[in-house]
Protein backbone atom coordinates (compact mmCIF):
# COMPACT_ATOMS: atom_id res chain seq x y z
CA UNK A 1 0.00 0.00 0.00
CA UNK A 2 1.23 3.47 -0.87
CA UNK A 3 0.31 6.23 1.53
CA UNK A 4 0.35 9.86 0.61
CA UNK A 5 -0.27 12.93 2.69
CA UNK A 6 -2.65 15.30 0.94
CA UNK A 7 -3.44 18.86 1.90
CA UNK A 8 -7.13 19.36 2.45
CA UNK A 9 -9.18 22.44 3.29
CA UNK A 10 -12.47 22.21 5.13
CA UNK A 11 -14.80 24.72 3.52
CA UNK A 12 -17.88 24.06 5.62
CA UNK A 13 -17.75 23.79 9.39
CA UNK A 14 -20.22 20.90 9.43
CA UNK A 15 -17.44 18.69 8.03
CA UNK A 16 -15.99 16.73 10.93
CA UNK A 17 -19.05 17.40 13.06
CA UNK A 18 -22.51 16.69 11.63
CA UNK A 19 -21.03 15.56 8.29
CA UNK A 20 -18.18 13.08 8.79
CA UNK A 21 -14.75 13.80 7.31
CA UNK A 22 -14.02 11.34 4.48
CA UNK A 23 -12.32 8.12 5.49
CA UNK A 24 -11.42 4.77 3.99
CA UNK A 25 -14.28 2.48 5.04
CA UNK A 26 -12.00 -0.57 5.33
CA UNK A 27 -8.27 -1.21 5.32
CA UNK A 28 -8.47 -2.33 1.71
CA UNK A 29 -10.73 0.42 0.39
CA UNK A 30 -9.51 2.13 -2.76
CA UNK A 31 -11.96 5.01 -2.49
CA UNK A 32 -12.95 7.60 0.07
CA UNK A 33 -16.64 8.32 0.09
CA UNK A 34 -17.57 11.92 -0.62
CA UNK A 35 -20.59 13.31 1.18
CA UNK A 36 -23.18 15.78 -0.04
CA UNK A 37 -22.51 19.02 1.81
CA UNK A 38 -26.00 20.35 1.16
CA UNK A 39 -28.06 22.84 3.17
CA UNK A 40 -31.19 20.75 2.66
CA UNK A 41 -32.16 17.47 0.97
CA UNK A 42 -31.99 17.64 -2.81
CA UNK A 43 -34.68 16.04 -4.93
CA UNK A 44 -33.35 14.64 -8.19
CA UNK A 45 -36.11 13.90 -10.67
CA UNK A 46 -35.49 11.26 -13.33
CA UNK A 47 -33.08 12.65 -15.92
CA UNK A 48 -31.98 15.57 -13.72
CA UNK A 49 -28.35 16.46 -12.98
CA UNK A 50 -27.16 18.66 -10.10
CA UNK A 51 -23.73 19.77 -8.99
CA UNK A 52 -23.29 18.86 -5.34
CA UNK A 53 -20.66 20.51 -3.13
CA UNK A 54 -18.55 18.37 -0.81
CA UNK A 55 -17.36 21.11 1.56
CA UNK A 56 -13.76 20.08 0.89
CA UNK A 57 -10.92 21.05 -1.38
CA UNK A 58 -7.67 19.17 -1.88
CA UNK A 59 -4.38 20.24 -3.41
CA UNK A 60 -2.69 17.14 -4.78
CA UNK A 61 0.29 19.30 -5.91
CA UNK A 62 2.24 16.33 -7.36
CA UNK A 63 1.71 16.14 -11.18
CA UNK A 64 2.36 12.40 -11.07
CA UNK A 65 -0.94 11.98 -9.22
CA UNK A 66 -4.58 12.79 -9.91
CA UNK A 67 -7.84 11.94 -8.23
CA UNK A 68 -10.88 10.43 -9.85
CA UNK A 69 -14.44 10.79 -8.68
CA UNK A 70 -16.32 7.57 -9.37
CA UNK A 71 -19.90 6.49 -8.73
CA UNK A 72 -20.76 4.27 -5.76
CA UNK A 73 -21.93 0.92 -7.06
CA UNK A 74 -24.95 0.64 -4.78
CA UNK A 75 -26.34 4.05 -5.70
CA UNK A 76 -25.62 3.55 -9.39
CA UNK A 77 -26.95 0.04 -9.71
CA UNK A 78 -29.94 0.17 -7.37
CA UNK A 79 -31.02 3.80 -7.71
CA UNK A 80 -29.60 4.99 -11.04
CA UNK A 81 -27.58 7.72 -9.31
CA UNK A 82 -24.37 8.12 -11.26
CA UNK A 83 -22.20 11.03 -12.33
CA UNK A 84 -23.25 13.61 -14.91
CA UNK A 85 -19.70 13.55 -16.26
CA UNK A 86 -19.49 9.73 -15.85
CA UNK A 87 -16.08 10.13 -14.19
CA UNK A 88 -14.65 13.23 -12.53
CA UNK A 89 -10.97 13.96 -12.94
CA UNK A 90 -9.28 16.14 -10.32
CA UNK A 91 -6.08 17.77 -11.58
CA UNK A 92 -3.08 17.95 -9.28
CA UNK A 93 -3.16 21.76 -9.46
CA UNK A 94 -6.89 22.15 -8.72
CA UNK A 95 -7.55 23.95 -5.48
CA UNK A 96 -11.28 24.56 -5.73
CA UNK A 97 -14.05 22.74 -3.95
CA UNK A 98 -14.51 19.10 -4.90
CA UNK A 99 -17.85 18.98 -6.69
CA UNK A 100 -19.89 15.92 -7.58
CA UNK A 101 -22.17 16.02 -10.60
CA UNK A 102 -25.06 13.74 -9.65
CA UNK A 103 -27.24 12.42 -12.45
CA UNK A 104 -30.42 10.52 -11.86
CA UNK A 105 -30.34 8.24 -14.90
CA UNK A 106 -33.12 6.11 -13.41
CA UNK A 107 -36.87 6.50 -13.71
CA UNK A 108 -37.76 7.22 -10.10
CA UNK A 109 -37.26 10.36 -8.03
CA UNK A 110 -34.27 10.16 -5.69
CA UNK A 111 -33.64 12.39 -2.70
CA UNK A 112 -30.02 13.11 -1.80
CA UNK A 113 -29.91 13.69 1.93
CA UNK A 114 -27.58 16.12 3.69
CA UNK A 115 -24.31 14.28 4.41
CA UNK A 116 -25.18 11.31 2.19
CA UNK A 117 -22.25 9.54 0.54
CA UNK A 118 -22.78 10.30 -3.14
CA UNK A 119 -19.52 9.27 -4.85
CA UNK A 120 -16.00 8.14 -4.10
CA UNK A 121 -12.57 9.66 -4.59
CA UNK A 122 -9.63 7.53 -5.73
CA UNK A 123 -6.05 8.77 -5.96
CA UNK A 124 -4.33 7.48 -9.08
CA UNK A 125 -0.86 7.67 -10.62
CA UNK A 126 -0.44 9.78 -13.75
CA UNK A 127 2.17 9.77 -16.48
CA UNK A 128 2.38 12.90 -18.61
CA UNK A 129 3.39 12.19 -22.21
CA UNK A 130 6.18 13.79 -24.17
CA UNK A 131 5.16 13.38 -27.81
CA UNK A 132 7.68 12.17 -30.34
CA UNK A 133 6.21 12.61 -33.84
CA UNK A 134 7.13 9.68 -36.11
CA UNK A 135 6.22 8.68 -39.69
CA UNK A 136 5.55 5.05 -38.85
CA UNK A 137 5.31 2.82 -35.81
CA UNK A 138 7.19 -0.44 -35.26
CA UNK A 139 4.79 -3.23 -36.31
CA UNK A 140 2.59 -4.74 -33.59
CA UNK A 141 0.44 -7.88 -33.78
CA UNK A 142 -2.78 -5.81 -33.54
CA UNK A 143 -1.78 -3.11 -35.94
CA UNK A 144 -4.72 -0.80 -36.61
CA UNK A 145 -7.41 -3.37 -35.72
CA UNK A 146 -9.86 -2.34 -33.04
CA UNK A 147 -13.55 -2.07 -32.24
CA UNK A 148 -14.19 -5.81 -32.19
CA UNK A 149 -11.47 -6.82 -34.66
CA UNK A 150 -10.53 -9.80 -32.46
CA UNK A 151 -14.06 -11.28 -32.75
CA UNK A 152 -16.74 -11.81 -30.09
CA UNK A 153 -15.66 -15.15 -28.52
O1 LIG B 1 -16.34 15.76 -11.10
C1 LIG B 1 -15.53 16.70 -11.07
C2 LIG B 1 -14.70 17.00 -12.16
C3 LIG B 1 -13.84 18.09 -12.06
N1 LIG B 1 -13.79 18.82 -10.93
C4 LIG B 1 -12.83 19.93 -10.82
C5 LIG B 1 -11.41 19.41 -10.60
C6 LIG B 1 -10.77 19.51 -11.93
O2 LIG B 1 -9.37 19.68 -11.81
C7 LIG B 1 -11.48 20.71 -12.53
C8 LIG B 1 -11.50 20.72 -14.03
O3 LIG B 1 -12.06 19.52 -14.47
P1 LIG B 1 -11.98 19.11 -16.01
O4 LIG B 1 -10.63 19.41 -16.54
O5 LIG B 1 -12.49 17.71 -16.11
O6 LIG B 1 -13.11 20.06 -16.62
P2 LIG B 1 -13.05 21.08 -17.83
O7 LIG B 1 -14.43 21.15 -18.33
O8 LIG B 1 -11.96 20.69 -18.79
O9 LIG B 1 -12.71 22.44 -17.08
P3 LIG B 1 -11.33 23.27 -17.08
O10 LIG B 1 -11.38 24.09 -18.31
O11 LIG B 1 -11.41 24.07 -15.81
O12 LIG B 1 -10.19 22.29 -17.05
O13 LIG B 1 -12.82 20.65 -12.03
C9 LIG B 1 -14.60 18.52 -9.84
O14 LIG B 1 -14.56 19.16 -8.80
N2 LIG B 1 -15.45 17.46 -9.96
MG1 LIG C 1 -9.91 20.56 -18.20
TrEMBL record:
Annotated keywords: Hydrolase, Magnesium, Metal-binding, Nucleotide metabolism
Segments forming domain dUTPase-like: 19-151
CDD domains tied to this protein: trimeric_dUTPase
Required cofactor names: Mg(2+)
Domain of life: Bacteria
Assigned EC number: 3.6.1.23
Claim: Magnesium is one of the keywords in the record: yes
Pathway assignment: Pyrimidine metabolism; dUMP biosynthesis; dUMP from dCTP (dUTP route): step 2/2
Reaction(s) the record says it catalyses: dUTP + H2O = dUMP + diphosphate + H(+)
Gene Ontology molecular-function annotations: dUTP diphosphatase activity; magnesium ion binding
UniProt: substrate binding residues: 72-74, 85, 89-91
Annotated GO biological process: dUMP biosynthetic process; dUTP catabolic process
Function: This enzyme is involved in nucleotide metabolism: it produces dUMP, the immediate precursor of thymidine nucleotides and it decreases the intracellular concentration of dUTP so that uracil cannot be incorporated into DNA.
Similarity field: Belongs to the dUTPase family.
Name of this chain's protein: Deoxyuridine 5'-triphosphate nucleotidohydrolase
Amino acid sequence: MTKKTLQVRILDDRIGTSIPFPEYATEGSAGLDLRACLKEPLVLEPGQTQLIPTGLSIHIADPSLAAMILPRSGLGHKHGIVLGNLVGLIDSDYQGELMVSCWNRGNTTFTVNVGERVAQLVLVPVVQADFEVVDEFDASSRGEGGFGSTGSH
